[in-house]
Specification:
Layout (H helix, E strand, L loop, with lengths): L1 E2 L36 E4 L2 E4 L11 H19 L4 H12 L3 E2 L3 E3 L2 E7 L7 E5 L6 E5 L10 E8 L5 E8 L4 E8 L5 E10 L4 E3 L2 E6 L17 E6 L8 E4 L8 E6 L5 E7 L4 E7 L8 E4 L6 E6 L3 E6 L7 E6 L9 E4 L5 E8 L2 E7 L4 E6 L5 E5 L6 E7 L2 E10 L2 E9 L4 E6 L10 E9 L5 E9 L10 E4 L17 H5 L3 E6 L7 H6 L7 H16 L8 E6 L1 H12 L6 E5 L18 H4 L6 H10 L14 E7 L8 H12 L7 E6 L10 H18 L6
Parallel strand pairs: 35-36, 35-37, 37-38, 38-39, 39-40
Antiparallel strand pairs: 1-2, 2-3, 4-6, 5-6, 6-7, 7-8, 9-10, 10-11, 11-12, 13-14, 14-15, 15-16, 17-18, 18-19, 19-20, 21-22, 22-23, 23-24, 25-26, 26-27, 27-28, 29-30, 30-31, 31-32, 33-34, 34-36
Helix pairs in contact: 2-10
């Protein structure tokens, strides 16, 4: 691919005003004028213009001024929505309920996260017995004044004297690691910088972590991340003296993480190229021990889930698209030396956890979790009954037989249970008190045919008594990528939309993980159009069945889901009234050039792979397929954030600028650019409420809804 230099420069316009009226008669907004440049890339003989390339520079004063002017237009528009303030009050009230994470037991102590309601970050507690007096072990709210510092993970030393905690600032993927004395609460001088995609794995008087070299020239939020390294940090020493445990100089675009077994005997080195991962094991009891590979196919997903002195258990989809569990003898480690402990079956195995001498296996059966109790040899004993159709997460350990789990669904807030293995009984230990009545709502699970007749699943949730009159507002959500499943789950933020007559719909598209690796692969690379067809068909089904009509449909998705929204809006602008692509991958030709974007090639392919792949990406890339011929587009609000170093803001910047310059009708095309926020993880509740208020205000206003 040959690239030319940026040739031209036009001064940014100074207009910041916005003119608007109600959703039934929009007046075209007065957008800031965005300069263009004569940048052209050549892909396999095809010239592709990139007139807003300059917006990729997240450090320039010009980009900062553009952001300021865009936010002025967006804020003016949103502030004019009559019910926005009332909706924020409702979101705040609905969010103000006590929340608790699933407890876990460690060396005789119990730990859990809890949030009183509107705390920006959940607090880590420790207690001797559940229900007894609990003390605050770590309060992330004290790490910043505005809640924008969040916990990414924690890890105790073997003697529980020290707690390593990993933080993120303003939602960035960059991590810092600190160490606290759990007895005194003192934070030690140990401080790790430029860690990324890592936890802290303790061994002895220190821990392993993964990091990159410190970025230069202020490009920490956009530069490509290369040569991830694994280090060992010994307490009381500076980071500069940390031992380099592993680096692969032959493969700069791979991830490396290291885990340690509970007894600290085994080190597990994970190597990933973005599609799957290999696993290497080092037995530290052996003199001059070397890493031994036990899984070498990086196109497969492999994960060690348990290790003791006799055996190592690993989940894998190698020759098992729905996953199986393989057992290795610790005395005979190597590739293909494991034996199947739990065979693959017709349902997706989402994971296992050990509970004393038993195993709990969680499966996805028709997009709902089912849990089973197994003996130590993988033989099924019984199914563990769940409250209803929904999602479950277990907390247990091979060191004891106490089991806890959390359960939720679309109208079932996250509730915590303790499970008695001997009695086969679940006892509720925490139930949130949300200000709504679940009995007033219904969740319906349906399947519909996609364009190629493949049957696709969808959940729709609405208030009882809803009529199929073709006029019901719909909020249609999708993702469809990276083997990620959209399991049923609860969010208080959806309640006002549904209370006011709306339907919340979630489509389980190809590309996701709901039906195993085969379902995932059916939505990747040269099959990516299947994902868009599945989503479009979901909307068409809702129309055909009388639930709604195109002028009442809003669509939403984030990250890969933002790409989904951008692509289907270009392909079927007539089918939707409103679209909100969040932190989306919008430039499919250059995504791999920023931070860890190269990691997504396993799902997308790359524009420089070959001509066929380039043409396929170019044909659906949201940025490159915006119509400019007067075709009426839906109302669109793009969202991104200044610290998003996962999908850099340039994707959304260039997409929004192109939308505003194109002739796509008079519906608003605005962009909401958050500050001190990233891709979404760890966002404080105050910012979550603000963002959800703006998204739902935009959607409900443009669907003609009102707040009762």
């Amino acid at each position: 691919m040959k690239k030319t230099a940026i040739m031209a420069s036009i001064i940014l316009g100074a207009s910041t005003g916005a003119c608007l009226v109600g959703c039934q008669g929009q007046v075209k907004l007065d957008y800031p004028e965005t300069k263009t440049v004569d940048t052209v890339d050549v892909y396999f003989g095809t010239q592709v213009a990139d007139p807003y390339r300059w917006l990729e520079d997240d450090n320039s004063e010009e980009t900062a001024e553009w952001v300021k002017q865009q936010n002025a237009v967006t804020n003016s528009y949103l502030e004019s929505i009559p019910f926005r303030g009332k909706l924020k009050e409702q979101f705040t009230a609905l969010s103000n309920y006590e929340k608790m994470g699933t407890p876990w037991k460690e060396e005789g102590k119990y730990y859990f996260y809890k949030n009183d309601g509107l705390q920006n970050q959940s607090v880590l507690f420790e207690c001797d017995s559940l229900g007894g007096e609990a003390k605050v072990l770590l309060d992330p709210n004290k790490l910043s004044d505005d809640g924008t510092v969040s916990l990414s993970s924690i890890s105790f030393s073997k003697d529980r004297k020290y707690l390593a905690y990993v933080i993120s600032r303003s939602g960035s993927d960059w991590n810092e690691i600190y160490v606290m004395n759990t007895e005194t609460g003192e934070v030690l001088e140990d401080h790790i910088m430029w860690a990324k995609f890592t936890g802290a794995s303790w061994k002895g008087d220190g821990f392993y972590y993964s990091a990159y070299d410190a970025p230069t020239d202020g490009k920490g939020l956009s530069a490509k991340n290369e040569f991830q390294k694994v280090y060992y940090h010994k307490l009381g020493t500076p980071q500069s003296s940390d031992h380099l445990e592993y680096v692969n100089k032959q493969h700069p675009l791979r991830f490396y993480q290291l885990g340690v077994s509970d007894d600290e005997r085994f080190l597990f080195l994970y190597e990933s190229d973005g599609e799957g991962n290999a696993i290497y094991v080092k037995d530290t009891k052996k003199p001059n021990a070397q890493y031994v590979c036990i899984a070498d196919d990086m196109s497969k997903d492999n994960s060690v889930v348990h290790a003791d002195e006799k055996r190592i258990l690993m989940t894998t989809n190698d020759d098992a698209p729905n996953y199986k569990v393989v057992e290795f003898s610790t005395s005979n480690l190597g590739v293909n030396k494991g034996k199947t402990l739990i065979a693959e079956n017709e349902n997706l195995l989402e994971g296992i956890t050990l509970a004393g001498d038993k195993i709990i296996a969680v499966y996805m059966e028709n997009i709902a979790n089912h849990a089973y109790l197994l003996d130590s040899n993988g033989n099924r004993i019984r199914e563990i009954a769940m409250p209803t159709v929904g999602s479950v997460g277990f907390s247990s350990s091979f060191k004891h037989n106490e089991v806890f789990y959390s359960f939720s669904s679309y109208t079932f807030p996250g509730t915590i249970y303790k499970y008695d293995i001997e009695k086969d009984e679940s006892t509720k230990i925490f139930s949130p008190k949300v200000d709504f009545n679940p009995e007033d709502y219904v969740t319906e699970q349906i399947s519909y045919p996609s364009k190629d007749s493949t049957m696709v699943n969808m959940f729709i949730t609405y208030k009882k008594g809803l009529e199929k009159n073709g006029k019901n507002p719909v909020f249609l959500y999708g993702y469809g990528g990276f083997n990620i499943s959209l399991n049923p789950g609860f969010s208080a933020m959806r309640i006002p939309f549904i209370q006011n007559g709306g339907i919340y719909a979630v489509a389980n598209l190809r590309g996701g993980g709901e039906f195993g690796e085969t379902w995932h692969q059916a939505g990747t690379k040269l099959n990516k159009q299947n994902v868009f067809d599945d989503f479009i068909s979901a909307a068409e089904y809702l129309v055909a069945q009388g639930y709604t009509s195109p002028e009442h449909i809003a669509i939403n998705g984030g990250s890969n889901g933002g790409l989904l929204v951008g692509a289907v809006v270009n392909q079927r602008p007539d089918l939707f009234r409103v679209a909100v692509p969040q932190v989306g991958v919008m430039d499919m030709l250059r995504y791999h050039k920023f931070t860890i974007g190269w990691n997504w090639a396993s799902d997308y392919g790359r524009s420089d792979d070959n001509e066929e792949m380039f043409k396929y990406l170019h044909a659906y890339s949201p940025l490159h397929n915006i119509k400019n011929d007067g075709t009426a587009y839906p109302a669109i609000m793009v969202t991104t954030a200044d610290h998003d170093d996962r999908v850099v803001p340039a994707h959304s910047f260039k997409y929004a600028a192109t939308l505003q310059a194109a002739n796509t009708g008079d519906q608003p095309k605005i962009i909401r650019i958050d500050s001190k926020a990233g891709h979404g993880g760890g966002k404080p509740i105050a910012k979550v409420i603000e963002e959800q208020t703006d998204i739902y205000s935009f959607i409900m206003h443009n669907l003609g809804m009102e707040i009762k």
